[in-house]
Structures are given as C-alpha cells and as structure tokens.
C-alpha cells in the first residue's frame, strides 16, 4: 500500500520534473516566447508601450509584477489574469479602459498595488473590488468618475492609499468608504465636489491624509470630519469656501491636525475672524497657512484684506461707544431715580409731618 503510494509519488515527480525544466527553458528565451520583456529572477513582465489592444495571451505564470501601461487596452474581462495569479503589482495606467467586468481582478488575492490611472473609467460595478482583499494601493486618478457609490469599494479590507485625483466627482454617497477602516491616505483633489455631507467619511478612523484641494466645496456639514480620529493633514485649499463654522473643525477629535485653507473666497466679517481666532487657540489644530488667507472684502484703499488683519476695529469702537453710552445712561437713570426717591421721601416726610401737625391741630 505505502509502496504503491511512494511509487506513484515518485512517478509524479518524474513526470513533473521535465515540465518544470521545460517551463524554465521557455522562459529563458523569454523575449521571444512572450510578447513582453520578462525578467525571470525578478518575476517582472514588462509589456509597456506595445500597442496592445488585448491582454497578451501568454505570460510567465511566476510573474509578480506586470506592467501593461501605455497600451491601447479598452476592457478587462472577468478573471482576465487567471494565468498570472501570483501578481503583486499590476500597472494598467495610460490605456483607454472604459469597461471593467465584474470580477476582472477576482483571482488576484495577493495583489498589493493596482494602477488604473489615466483611463476612461466612469463606473465601477460591485464586483470590481471582489478578491482584492489584500490590495494596499489603488489609483483611479485621471478617469471619468462623476459620483462615488456605496457599491464601488466593498471588498477593500486592507487598502491604505486610494487615489481618486482628477476625476469629475460631484457626489459621494454615504457608506462609500465603509470597508476602508485601514485607509491612511485619500486623494479627492481636483474633482467637482461642492458640499461634504455628514457620514461620507464614516469608518475612516485610520485616515491620516485627506486631500480635497481644487474642488468647488462651499459647505461642510458640521459633523463630517468627526469620524477622522487619526487625521494629520487636511487640505482644503483652492475651494469655494466663504465661511466656516467653528464646530466643524473643533469636532476633529485628533491628536494633532494641520489644516490648509488658502485660495478660498473668504468673506471676512467679524464673525469669521472670531471663528479663526478661536480655531488658532485650539491646541491640537494647526492652521498652517493662516497668514496667507486672503479675503474677498476690500479695505478703503481697495486692497484685499487678509484674515489676520484687524479690520474689526471700527466695529469694536462702535461697540465700545454703545457700551459706554448705555452704561452712562443707566448710571444717570439710577442717579436720577435715587434723587427722585430721596426728594419724594423728603416730601412724604413733610406731608406726614403736615398731616400730623394737622391732626394735632385738630
Ligand atoms: C532578448 O533579450 C536579450 C537580453 O535579455 C537581448 O539581447 C535580445 O536582443 C532580445 N531579443 C529580442 C528579439 O528582443
Ligand atoms: C518597464 O520598462 C520601462 C522602460 O522600458 C520602465 O520605465 C518601467 O519602469 C518598467 N516597468 C517595470 C515594472 O519594471
Ligand atoms: C505603436 O504604434 C505607434 C504608432 O502607430 C508606432 O510608432 C510604434 O512603433 C508602435 N510601437 C510598437 C512597440 O509596436
Ligand atoms: C469640474 O471642475 C472642473 C475644474 O476643476 C471644470 O473644468 C469642469 O467644468 C467641472 N465639471 C462640471 C461638470 O462641473
Ligand atoms: C461658490 O459657492 C457659491 C455659493 O456659496 C455659489 O453661488 C457659486 O456658484 C460657487 N462658485 C463656484 C465657482 O462653484
Ligand atoms: C504664503 O504665501 C507666500 C507667498 O505667496 C508663500 O511663499 C508661502 O509659502 C505661503 N505659506 C504657506 C504656508 O503656504
Ligand atoms: C480680492 O477681492 C476680489 C473681490 O472683491 C476678488 O475677486 C479677488 O479674488 C480678491 N483677491 C484675492 C487675492 O483674494
């Protein structure tokens, strides 16, 4: 029994050995057998700039890094990478990909980095993230996404960096990022966001860097930043903010957060200046570009104010004048009332005396 087992395993070995040798001999003549430049020792297959319109049919199965950038790929079929399941890095940037089939990457369970930047992706199906539970780094920069749905990113359990820069994103649905409690960096800059609604960043408790610059954000819900308990950098420069609420930033319950706010059309009234002065006094918040915040308001010489400038002096003087006037009025009124009372008392005394005298006279 054991003997036959041993013999069959030996036979397997004998059968497998030449196969391995064959594969190796093929792959030594790699650049002829495969359409790409393959470095066997480095486990790299480099297929960049080959004018491919379809995925190459044959790729070494040992490949861990596959570079398909700068080709003409337009679609990725389901299970497209079934011959190269050991991939750890997959570069698909600079193609014309518009269609990602459900489960396009579903067999790549060890994939760490996926670059899909500079393609024509406008939609992601629920199966997009299927099987990508190990992915750490995803770029969808410079595509055509207009909204982010809660079904786009459901299976990303290990993602640390997500780049959505330079799409045309207008709306982010609630729960879009809920699978991403491991995310550390989120790039949403250069999109078309106008408002940030409560709940869109829930579960992002490990997020350290949030890039939101170059959008058209004019309003943040007061609680939208409160789930971001690890946030170290928030870039809101070059948006459409004219005012902010103190509580919006105070709700950032972090150890220390740097906030960038220049390039917004600040409407610097005294209320907003007060908000900024209070923010500057919050020890854990650092307004790095506070000195550079310019206002849309103009001063007497038609020069723009900066947030730091003391332009509430006139208001303060007015307030002071009013206060002093009120105090004087009140004091005067009290004094007058007191005088009146004393006078009345005196008169009363007299009448009382008079009455008495009248009584005694009677
Ligand atoms: C194949 O690769 C070798 C070096 O790895 C190179 O010298 C040779 O020119 C390549 N052949 C072709 C046809 O590209
Ligand atoms: C592929 O080759 C190009 C140059 O031909 C190089 O710039 C690129 O870094 C290579 N890709 C990988 C993954 O090594
Ligand atoms: C790709 O196509 C361009 C333009 O047609 C051509 O100039 C270039 O040589 C092609 N590259 C390859 C690797 O075939
Ligand atoms: C999105 O914003 C860009 C500038 O960042 C602008 O050119 C484009 O017209 C905007 N698109 C829409 C649909 O608002
Ligand atoms: C900026 O926000 C205001 C509302 O506060 C809006 O009326 C205006 O159109 C916005 N401008 C841009 C360029 O988005
Ligand atoms: C403020 O603006 C000046 C001049 O434009 C620039 O040199 C400086 O780096 C800016 N500071 C910050 C914190 O962005
Ligand atoms: C100065 O204020 C005007 C509006 O009165 C605005 O259009 C302009 O952008 C402001 N300049 C700066 C540098 O903020």
Automatic annotation (TrEMBL):
PROSITE patterns: LRR (PS51450). One of its GO terms (cellular component) is plasma membrane. The keyword DNA repair does not apply. Keywords: Glycoprotein, Leucine-rich repeat, Membrane, Repeat, Signal, Transmembrane, Transmembrane helix. The chain crosses the membrane at residues 316-337. Residues 1-25 form the signal peptide. InterPro entries: Leu-rich_rpt, Leu-rich_rpt_typical-subtyp, LRR_dom_sf, LRR_TM_domain-containing. This is LRRCT domain-containing protein. It comes from Sinocyclocheilus grahami (Dianchi golden-line fish).
């Amino acid at each position: 029994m054991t003997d036959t087992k041993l013999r069959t395993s030996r036979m397997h070995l004998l059968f497998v050995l030449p196969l391995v040798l064959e594969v190796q001999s093929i792959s030594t003549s790699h650049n002829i057998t495969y359409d790409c430049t393959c470095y066997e020792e480095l486990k790299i297959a480099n297929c960049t700039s080959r004018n491919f319109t379809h995925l190459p049919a044959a790729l070494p199965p040992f490949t861990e890094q596959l570079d398909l950038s700068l080709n003409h790929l337009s679609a990725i079929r389901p299970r497209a990478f079934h011959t190269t399941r050991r991939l750890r890095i997959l570069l698909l940037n600079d193609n014309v990909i518009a269609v990602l089939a459900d489960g396009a990457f579903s067999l790549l369970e060890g994939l760490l980095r996926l670059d899909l930047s500079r393609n024509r992706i406008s939609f992601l199906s629920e199966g997009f993230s299927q099987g990508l539970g190990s992915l750490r780094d995803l770029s969808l920069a410079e595509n055509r996404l207009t909204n982010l749905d809660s079904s786009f990113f459901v299976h990303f359990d290990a993602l640390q960096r997500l780049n959505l820069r330079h799409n045309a994103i207008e709306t982010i649905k609630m729960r879009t990022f809920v699978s991403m409690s491991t995310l550390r960096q989120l790039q949403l800059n250069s999109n078309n966001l106008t408002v940030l609604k409560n709940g869109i960043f829930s579960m992002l408790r490990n997020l350290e860097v949030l890039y939101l610059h170059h959008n058209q954000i004019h309003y943040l819900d007061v609680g939208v930043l409160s789930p971001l308990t690890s946030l170290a950098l928030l870039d809101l420069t070059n948006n459409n903010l004219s005012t902010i609420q103190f509580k919006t930033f105070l709700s950032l319950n972090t150890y220390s957060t740097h906030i960038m706010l220049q390039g917004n059309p600040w409407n610097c009234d005294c209320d907003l200046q007060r908000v900024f002065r209070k923010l500057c006094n919050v020890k854990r918040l650092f307004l790095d570009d506070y000195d550079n915040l310019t206002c849309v308001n103009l001063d007497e010489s038609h020069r723009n104010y900066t947030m730091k400038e003391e332009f509430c002096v006139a208001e303060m003087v007015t307030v002071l004048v009013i206060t002093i006037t009120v105090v004087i009025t009140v004091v005067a009124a009290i004094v007058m009332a007191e005088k009146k009372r004393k006078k009345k008392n005196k008169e009363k005394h007299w009448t009382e005396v008079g009455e008495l005298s009248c009584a005694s006279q009677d």
